[in-house]
Amino acid sequence: MKRTIILIAALAFCATSFAQNEYDALRYSTNNYYGTARSIAVGNAMTAVGGDLGAIGLNPAGSAVSGYSQFTLTPNVSLVATQATYDAVPGKTGSVLSTRDSWSRFSMPNFGMVFNFDLHRRSGIRNISLGFIGNATSNFLDRMAAEGDNSATSFLGQLAAATTGIPTSQLESYNSGAPWNSVIGYNTDMISAYGSGDTDYIGATEKLYGDEITLAGPLSQRYGRQSSGNKYDLLFNAGMNISDVLYIGANLGLVSIDYSTNTYFKEAALDPNQFGIEYADGFVSYFDNMRYRQHIDATGSGIYGKLGFIVRPVGGLRIGAAFQTPTSNFITEHWVYSGDITFSDRSNSETSPEGSFEYRLTSPWRFNAGVAYTFGAMGFLSADYEMCDYSRMRFREVGTNDDSEFSYENSNILNYMGMSHMLRLGAEMKVVPEVALRAGYNLTTTPERYLDTVGNKIAPSASRHAISFGFGYSSKGSFFADFACRGNFLPKEYIYPYDNYIDGTDSPEIMNKMQLWDIVATFGWRF
After folding, report:
1. Is 513 a member of any domain?
2. 459-513, pLDDT tens digit by residue?
3. Residues 501 and 157: beta-carbon distance below 8 Å
4. Does some domain include residue 59?
5. Considering the domain boundaries, does residue 508 fall inside one?
6. DSSP state, 180?
7. If residue 39 lies in a helix (H) or strand (E), which one and from where to where?
8. How many Å apart are CA 45 and CA 384, to the nearest integer?
């Protein structure tokens, strides 16, 4: 069974309250660490290394390793590239088309400063560090599109089937409890009531032959989405150096979430003459094209704590570990639906009111450990392991301890999410005292699960890979500069833009491959 970030009914048809699901929880809980160009270049394998502002988010003890204060600023350009195949009628030979898309945005994934206070002691607590750092932990950049011809099903056919059973009187208002997409469909003539009753509907792309509804003719279909935003951890850090052997630290982390996405679905008649709609007075109108859109904005804030240590037991060997508490997030979402349709004699459009909803989300605890070996001033080799149990995510209501409204969503989290493991490898080598070369690799397993025929939770073979490389320059004074390039290769994603509604016939399946590239530069000063 394919279940690699599967989005069922990706346009998220819902009623007057927007429906969160386990994939929303996963989006806001997942970390794809950024940091400085140095930490990114070595794959963020910095748990046991420290000494870098990007590493402090991984291990708070990292601020105490360096014996100086520092300030960094890190601009970044991100590029997302996608390739999507559209299988209009899954299993039918020749129905698959491929589409490429890309988009780039500027961001600032790291900024901050650490002050190091030398206590001038030969043993015991030798240094204390205090810092404020902002590190990005997710980039929501995304743009993809997919299209193909379909002679079996239609978006409007599914919308009509989903609306069946709702009286027409409920489709005249957004406050009636009817799904908003059905209200838009009815008020724009995307769907219409037929027969002697007022609860049976037919799509503008369909025809009625006796008691049977069929697609009137072949359609050109297109699905697309575009997303942007970031998740930042704002860290208040404190660390201490004990005898140059043990380093300990703590973070108070404040999370900032900003996410925006637009999705749309279009379908158009390849031959409008096949899509005639005859009215009682004999007039015939012909369907030409339609578009349904959804816009979502989400903002949020959260808080967590993190403790860590680094120990140097012998020579150049360093061992580090850190534990992060669950994050308590408060999230507000706003959304708007709209639709427009064109016939041979008219065009109709409708936009819903803005909906909003507030909820809490508890993101799970994390544990990471690392080992590194430093070759004096020549460089280091490092390896990190991180684990996070996403089945611990929970939606909660605001202002009450009664979370029954999310019982279904939280049950899905338990059933379809599990442990994710991350391996990070990194290396740095100084070719001359002022110049260092770096490289890194990440492997992250999917937290998603599916249930086999006897109810066992199975992890699909879907991992995220990242490669990185870069170089750094350190002047003999206080200035230093680092540069990095990183490519993230995400697992295949399967999208189903509307549900199956005809027995024995599947609706379209989209398979999307995505790469996210970052070009990063850090400019810093030591003092």
Report:
1. yes
2. 898 999 999 999 999 999 999 999 999 999 999 999 999 999 999 899 999 999 9
3. yes
4. yes
5. yes
6. H
7. helix 37-41
8. 5
How many whole angstroms separate alpha carbon 444 and alpha carbon 387? 10
**Alpha carbon separation from 244 to 297, 314, 407, 426, 457 (Å, rounded):** 47, 11, 50, 23, 46
Q: What is the DSSP letter of 344?
A: S
Give the residue carrying structure tokens 């979402």.
Answer: 333
What is the CA 60 to chain-centroid distance, rounded?
Answer: 25
Question: What is the value of pTM for the model shown?
Answer: 0.93
Q: Cα 222 to the chain's mean position, in Å? A: 22
| Ramachandran angles phi, psi of 158, nearest 5° | -65, -40
Query: Do you know the residue count of the chain?
Result: 527
The residues near 383 (Cβ < 8 Å, ≥ 6 apart) are 45, 370, 371, 372, 423, 424, 425, 426
Of 316, 290, 126, the C-alpha closest to 222 is 290
3-state SS of 85-153? EEECCCCCCCCEEEEEEEEEEEEEEEEEEEEEEECCCCCCEEEEEEEEEEEEEEECCEEEEEEEEECCC
Mind listing the pLDDT tens digit for each residue in 217-264? Answer: 999 999 999 999 999 999 999 999 999 999 999 999 999 999 999 999
What is the C-alpha to C-alpha distance for residues 7 and 507, in angstroms, rounded to an integer? 13
pLDDT value of residue 297: 98
Burial of 289 by CB count in 10 Å (0-12 exposed, 13-18 middle, 19+ buried)?
A: middle
Distance, in Å, from the CA atom of 356 to the CA atom of 16, rounded to the nearest integer, reads 9
SS3 161: helix
pLDDT reported for residue 1: 34
| Gap between the Cα atoms of 303 and 190, Å rounded | 45
User: pLDDT averaged over the chain?
Assistant: 94
As a whole number of angstroms, the distance between CA 76 and CA 518 comes to 7
The CA distances from residue 148 to 89, 99, 194, 249, 272, in Å, are: 10, 10, 29, 55, 17
Token pair of 389 as six digits: 């149990």
Mean pLDDT check: name the lowest of 112-121, 204-213, 389-398. 204-213
User: Domain of 420?
Assistant: 7-526
Non-local CB neighbours of 281 within 8 Å, separated by 6+ positions: none
- Only one residue has tokens 């199975």, namely 458
CATH code: domain of residue 228: 2.40.160.60
What Cα–Cα distance (Å) separates residue 417 from each residue in 46, 404, 454, 458? Answer: 27, 20, 17, 10
Tokens of 442: 């990440």
| Residues in contact with 371: Cβ distance below 8 Å, sequence separation at least 6, in sequence order | 48, 317, 318, 319, 320, 382, 383
Query: Could you tell me the two tokens for 126?
Result: 């030798």
User: Residue 417's closest CA among 357, 362, 335, 498?
Assistant: 362
- Please indicate, yes or no, if residue 1 is contained in any of the structural domains: no
One-letter amino acid for residue 460 of the chain: P
State how far the alpha carbon of 256 is from the alpha carbons of 32, 110, 138, 250, 331, in Å: 14, 14, 10, 19, 10
Number of domains making up the chain: 1
Residue 79, CA distances (Å) to 263, 318, 469 in order: 19, 35, 16
Using DSSP's 3-state secondary structure scheme, residue 169 falls into helix
- In angstroms, how far apart are the furthest CA atoms of the chain? 99
Q: Nearest to residue 186, comparing CAs of 210, 211, 162, 168?
A: 168
